[in-house]
Description:
Elements: H1 2-20, E1 24-32, E2 36-46, E3 52-60, H2 68-81, H3 93-109, E4 131-140, H4 144-155, E5 161-164, E6 181-182, H5 189-193, H6 198-208, H7 215-234, E7 255-256, H8 264-276, E8 281-284, E9 288-294, E10 300-306, E11 312-323, H9 332-338, H10 360-366, E12 372-373, E13 378-384, E14 403-405, H11 419-427, E15 434-438, H12 456-461, E16 466-468, H13 471-478, H14 482-496, E17 522-534, E18 537-538, E19 545-547, E20 553-559, H15 576-594
Helix pairs in contact: 2-3, 4-8, 4-15, 6-7, 7-15, 13-14
Amino acid sequence: xxxxxxxxxxxxxxxxxxxxxxxxxxxxxxxxxxxxxxxxxxxxxxxxxxxxxxxxxxxxxxxxxxxxxxxxxxxxxxxxxxxxxxxxxxxxxxxxxxxxxxxxxxxxxxxxxxxxxxxxxxxxxxxxxxxxxxxxxxxxxxxxxxxxxxxxxxxxxxxxxxxxxxxxxxxxxxxxxxxxxxxxxxxxxxxxxxxxxxxxxxxxxxxxxxxxxxxxxxxxxxxxxxxxxxxxxxxxxxxxxxxxxxxxxxxxxxxxxxxxxxxxxxxxxxxxxxxxxxxxxxxxxxxxxxxxxxxxxxxxxxxxxxxxxxxxxxxxxxxxxxxxxxxxxxxxxxxxxxxxxxxxxxxxxxxxxxxxxxxxxxxxxxxxxxxxxxxxxxxxxxxxxxxxxxxxxxxxxxxxxxxxxxxxxxxxxxxxxxxxxxxxxxxxxxxxxxxxxxxxxxxxxxxxxxxxxxxxxxxxxxxxxxxxxxxxxxxxxxxxxxxxxxxxxxxxxxxxxxxxxxxxxxxxxxxxxxxxxxxxxxxxxxxxxxxxxxxxxxxxxxxxxxxxxxxxxxxxxxxxxxxxxxxxxxxxxxxxxxxxxxxxxxxxxxxxxxxx
Length: 596
Ligand code: ADP
């Protein structure tokens, strides 16, 4: 009897063990819009009753810092909701979708019927208690300007800094930027070699903005730019030291390129600093500022926010509030109301911007009587992805090595010119579409990265770029007349080789050339106009204090970054936006800490 009992027990244990290991895992890899081919690999594990017990993202080639929020949240949501159809993470929608696609593919390829698991579950979020907080400095927006301001406030003596960010991640538009930062180390060997100076940067910024920029603000920008680079380096940020380049619309070789892709280097640096000073600086994600409050004397004294669960979070600011909410390029209504340049900024024109660029700061400061300048000055780029409008997928490295080719196979503008001129020219082309064309001088093997962390070969495999041994084959791939393309490149190459030394001028007035486009394989990628930067904004002085409609300082209120106006005028130089976030972010933080 005892023996039978033991046997029965042993069998039961074995059965339980067998049941316990009855979970089955499935793995698949899919492409994503951001990272090209084989970008996301996921493993999903189902219990024997079909419920999801685990989801892991084994590999994600989308840019770290941009996709992190989705990599963390989507698997958690899938397990919690037992569904593979969950809400995308705001600001990381493409990666979210790629993770869901990979999980779906893994299950489908594994023969699992996904009908039940694909059902969207209703998620009930319990509202957390309202909160009342207090800090010396309160900052709205954890993009480039906001985090620069937070760090600067701490470095200038603030004992407590709270940054609120409405999205689930820091970074804003700054993290999506190409990474180019204009700065001149005046009279350095490099500046002398590039024939550059702080004053030439000043002149080009003012002139490039049709002299609409406030000269004092422009001088503040350019004369503090190099110190900004040194400041970033002092916190460990690395730049590609021998790669000072001309970014599109930058007009001069003075852009510094971070080692990390796109804008991620800034946030890697800022996050490390903030983590090391977490006793002073606190960043609250998923917290949306709704209102800026004032005391009886009109001094700004705090903000009211909506928290992640819909609760109200009130934050008192002892010394000041810094508005660093970025621009409004993603707010179609606002850009239609304010636009004075383009006349056509409806939803058919896409944007390079992140979802959060909706002009909240403008609306909040309007209620305080702040003055706004040049709101109609909206910058478009001729460099948008035809599907998403984003800058990703752009194969160019710098101005000198590429041309723009229209659907007729011809060049049509000075590709080294101002951003507004180049975009206007693109609007006039067939289907408002052009191809960036370049050769293997930029991509010797095709495995080299573009400025957005993608290799040319990945983009080609994903159908987002083209590669061919000859210009004729390239023309066939992109559907333009081969004879026109060959003629356009042949003529262009004459100038690369010094054609203008005979007194001729490039037909479009281009003056920035490198080596000829004659080294196959050749590359092409389609681009369309895209809304990029809202150059108008709130009026500030050189201390980043916000000015009201009567020309007076609004006490306790500071602003920095894209939410401000009067720096870039009618046209922003490429590479000046990141400089703007660093220089004016730092000033805003220091001014707020000093209470001036
Ligand atoms: P800048 O280049 O001026 O720093 P960014 O776009 O990089 O601008 O950053 C602005 C940040 O402000 C974004 O992360 C955006 O989500 C955030 N933001 C915008 N509106 C609000 C708001 N109402 N509350 C909190 N954060 C906001």
